[in-house]
Amino acid sequence: MSYLPVKQLLQTEPGQTVTVKGWVRTKRESKNAVFVAINDGSTIHTIQAVAEAGFLPDETLRLITTGACVAITGELVPSQGAGQAVEVQIADVHIYGPADPEKYPLQPKRHSLEFLREIAHLRPRTNTFSAILRIRHALAFAVHKYYNDNGFFYLNTPIITASDAEGAGEMFRVSTLDPLNPPKTEDGKVDYSQDFFGRETNLTVSGQLEGELGALALGKIYTFGPTFRAENSNTTRHLAEFWMIEPEMAFFELEDNMNLAEDFVKTVIRYALDNCADDLAFLENRLKEEEKTKKKEEQSEMTLTEKLRFVVDNDFERLTYTEAVEILRNSKPAKKGQFQYEVSWGIDLQSEHERYLVEKHFKKPVILTNYPRAIKSFYMKQDDESAAAPGPTVRAMDVLFPGIGEIIGGSQREDNLEKLTTRMAEVGIADEAIWWYLDTRRFGSAPHSGFGLGFERLVLFVSGMSNIRDVIPFPRAPKSAEF
Ligand code: ATP
Ligand code: MG
Ligand code: MG
Ligand code: MG
């Protein structure tokens, strides 16, 4: 007797006695037999276990309900049913944990995503979420594989940090002081010298600054860790806790950075296409059903896998921010003929603009470069003044994806100490706050570049889901933290 995951059992030759362990999805009784479908999370598929009517004791039969956890032993035999090669001829049933059908929230029917978000503790037991979680796993593995294959070192940057890479003020504070009654200095301010680290600290919003330290020592590094932003944006693209992948490379200029970003996302998506075919097929079908409920003009022209293949097989469009603004100013989006936010050189592009460029104008992923200096972070390398842009720009790049908008933000980094500190002074960052960062420009500075990819936005794109809360096992967003 052997115990194998359902995924392997389904590919095992009939003839041997096996045990399947997992959760009952459905039980169906006919005049002559009872059919139990069991899933154990190893695959989207269930394996069917069959017993002749009357074979199972009544009490056992009663406890085999949707959601119950069971071990079923019996001979693996060729299946008569369609769509499956083998099934288990039940000889013995052990019930690990029954699930009262009156109370178990997951029934054998399709539940709405909204409902499943409310029972996030059980949704991994559904087909949709188990498929997403397996795809998420495969993508995470592909990320590590990609960087390992390309000579990068995995660098762990601090989660609790005193630096604020983005300066966007979206930080969660970390403190051991009594929040209601903190110690005060003589002039009435909170006395952080009594705090655990002796100064104000927060959860990291990005590992980039520390990542740069790694690149300027090890050459090529990447981080892949949790990131926290207390942004009050209740969008379908933002989480308060998300995972970010941040490669940082010495001797890479902006062009090399773009090439890496494009090759990287294509390679990991290809990995998912090659290794998650069953789960992608399931999600694709789910989407097809959803599409049918939409108006004709809003229906997608491509299926999920067609969309993924298209991204993998075609060059991304590359243009400057300035060129993009020209296109947007001359375009007539949708029927209303205008964007909600008017476009002029210098604005931070909104997701409606990004998605117009990607979905309507170019109809493919786009890399936008050379953004106005004023709307980007202090650490981005300043472009030489150029007649091609109406104001100062930096060597930034954002990768924009259909249905998502920004999936990657990156840049070549400013490697000139004087330019960097001048810019810091302009935006109000004291040299002392990141003296260690400035040291890398003071001693052995080198051209270098990097970017950040929001892992959940990648999973969102690959799974075809439309809300970022549905592609992370335990979503954290404003007013939601069950765990
Ligand atoms: P956005 O414009 O969408 O708010 P951003 O420009 O603030 O993103 P960056 O600081 O450039 O984000 O971070 C790099 C990447 O991290 C983004 O391109 C995106 O993929 C991802 N990201 C940023 N904020 C979030 C969030 N709150 N939840 C999930 N992913 C995020
Ligand atoms: Mg943001
Ligand atoms: Mg942005
Ligand atoms: Mg960005």
TrEMBL record:
Q: Does the keyword Transmembrane apply?
A: no
Tell me the domain of life: Bacteria
Q: CDD domains, from UniProt?
A: AsxRS_core, EcAsnRS_like_N
Catalyzed reactions per annotation: tRNA(Asn) + L-asparagine + ATP = L-asparaginyl-tRNA(Asn) + AMP + diphosphate + H(+)
The UniProt record lists the Aminoacyl-transfer RNA synthetases class-II family profile domain at: 133-473
Coiled coil regions in record: 273-307
Keywords noted in UniProt = Aminoacyl-tRNA synthetase, ATP-binding, Coiled coil, Cytoplasm, Ligase, Nucleotide-binding, Protein biosynthesis
Protein name in the entry: Asparagine--tRNA ligase
Q: What is its EC number?
A: 6.1.1.22
Where, per UniProt, does this protein localize?
Cytoplasm
- The main location is cytoplasm
Q: What is known about its subunit structure?
A: Homodimer.
The record's annotation in PANTHER family points to: ASPARAGINE--TRNA LIGASE, MITOCHONDRIAL-RELATED, ASPARTYL/LYSYL-TRNA SYNTHETASE
What protein family is recorded? Belongs to the class-II aminoacyl-tRNA synthetase family.
Example GO molecular function term?
asparagine-tRNA ligase activity
